[in-house]
Amino acid sequence: MDTVTPALSPTDLMQAFASARTPLLVDVRRAEAFAADPTLMAGATWRDPFKVAEWEKYLPRHRPVAVYCVHGHEISRNACSALRAAGVDARFLDGGIEAWRALGGPTLRKSTQPVVPSASGAPTIWVTRERPKIDRIACPWLIRRFIDPFAQFEFAPPAQVLARATALGGTPYDVPGVTFTHRGDRCSFDALVEDYGLADAALARLATIVRGADTDRLDLAPESAGLLAISLGLGDQHRDDHELLERGFVMYDALYAWCRSAVRGTAERHNWKVPA
C-alpha cells in the first residue's frame, strides 16, 4: 500500500457502511464522468477533483474521509494526497465506484428534489414535526447515512412545519401534502428509498420493519414490535428532539447491520433450550 495515498478496500468500507464508523464519502470523479453516470455511492457528496483547495476546508478533521473515482486510479489518489497534505485523514477507495458496484454496495440515484448532495458549506435542511417517534427518526438516519452526510434537521409544531421549511429553504417531510410523506400504506421512509433509487436489499428489509412499526402493522416483520417499543422508550427518556435523533441513530445503525447479516444468511440466532 502506498504510504502517501493509503487505500481503503471496498470490503472494509462495506463493513463500516451506514454506521457512525463510516468515513465521509467524497466522489471525486471528473465532472464529465460524474455527469454521465445517473448514480453515485450512497451517502457520498461530489467535489471537483481539480479544486481540492476550495472545498477541503469544509471537511471534518475529526472524521476519516474516503474519496473515490471510477476505478481508483490517479484522480482519487491525487485528491487523497492533497487532502492528507491539508490535514484530512483521507484514503482512496481501491477499485473506485466500479469495485463498489461489483461488491453490491448501495448506490443513490441522482435527484433534484432537493438538490443532493449538499454544496460546499450549504447543507440541505429537512423539517418535520416535533417529538419524533419512528418514521421521523428513521428518515433522518436514512438521509444522513445514504443521501446527504451534511444534512441538518429541524423540528416544529405540526402547524408550523411548512412555514418553517420555507423560511429555512428546507424540505418538509412526514407531514400531509408534501413529497416525502406517507403514500397509501407506505410511510415516509419508503418514499425516500423509492425517490432516491436506493438499491440495497438490507435497506429494503429495514424499510419493511420501519413500515410495520410506524403504521401499526406489526405482522409485517417480527422486528417491528421491538422497534416500536424501543422507539417509544427512547422518547420517554429524551425530551430534546436532537438528542433523541442522536440516540436513535445508534439504534438504526445496529438494526441495519442486523438486516445486512440477515440478507447474507449470517445473522446470529439464539436457541437456548429450557431443560425438561
UniProtKB/TrEMBL annotation:
The protein's superkingdom reads Bacteria
**What GO terms are given for molecular function?**
thiosulfate-cyanide sulfurtransferase activity
Per its UniProt record, what SMART domains does this chain match?
RHOD
A Gene Ontology cellular-component term: cytoplasm
Which residue ranges does the record assign to the Rhodanese domain?
Answer: 19-109
Coiled-coil ranges from the UniProt annotation = none
PROSITE patterns for the chain? RHODANESE_3
- Pfam families xrefs: ChrB_C, Rhodanese
Q: What is this protein called?
A: Rhodanese domain-containing protein
Annotated source species: Usitatibacter palustris
